[in-house]
Amino acid sequence: MKTDLTELARLAAQVENQQHSQGLPPVEKWNPAFNGDLDMRIARDGSWYYLGTPILRPAMVRLFSTILKREGDEYFLVTPVEKFRIRVEDAPFVAVSVTQREQDGVSLLEFETSVGDHVVADTDHPIRVYTDAQSAEPAPYVRVRGNLDALISRAVFYQLVDMAEEEMVDGARQLCVHSVGQRFVLGKL
Fold first, then answer.
1. Greatest C-alpha distance within the chain
2. Distance between CA 162 and CA 177 in Å, rounded?
3. Which region, left, alpha or beta, applies to residue 36 given φ > 0 means left and ψ of -120 to 50 means alpha?
4. Mind listing the pLDDT tens digit for each residue in 61-103?
5. CATH class for domain 5-88?
6. Considering only CA atoms, which of 117, 178, 186, 185 is closest in space to residue 157?
7. Which residue, among 79, 86, 85, has the nearest Cα to 15 in the 3D structure?
8. What is the pTM of this model?
9. How many Cβ atoms are within 10 Å of 94's Cβ, its own excluded?
10. What does CATH list as the number for 93-188?
11. Where are the domains of the chain?
12. What is the DSSP string of 92-118?
């Protein structure tokens, strides 16, 4: 099922009307019936497209990002009464900055995503790095919310590497960063 711009505008208006003054909508509690596929795509660089055209309004992208839900390997925009599948090329968000700071004597890493979310790396928001077996290129991610991840941009990953310390992990020299008392391995040396 394809939808047109009128359908997208109607969905956006419905979401705006349901937004709570604080926090994100409780999408994990919403389980409406599947309504079909929406011709919306989130590119690997974090750009959002509708009907093949970039969505250039950051407020619109932010709005839709708040109703994004992942089930298995599929992504959906959901409201209490509707559920539309969309395509995500890699991760739905991109971590565009990282700040290393201390709070109450505890060192932490705080990421900002392309849609304005802020997340501190910890046990609920781990940093994970997958390495391509053929190219050996790293693909780093940080958990943002629920089971939604942000691809850590190349520039931010380089910042993490600069912050990293060499440690022995599982008998191998690894580059590691720490946040809220947790160790996150960036890769072998």
1. 58
2. 10
3. left
4. 999 999 999 999 999 999 999 999 999 999 999 999 999 999 8
5. alpha beta
6. 186
7. 79
8. 0.86
9. 23
10. 2.30.270.10
11. 5-88, 93-188
12. SEEEEEEEEEEETTEEEEEEEETTS-E
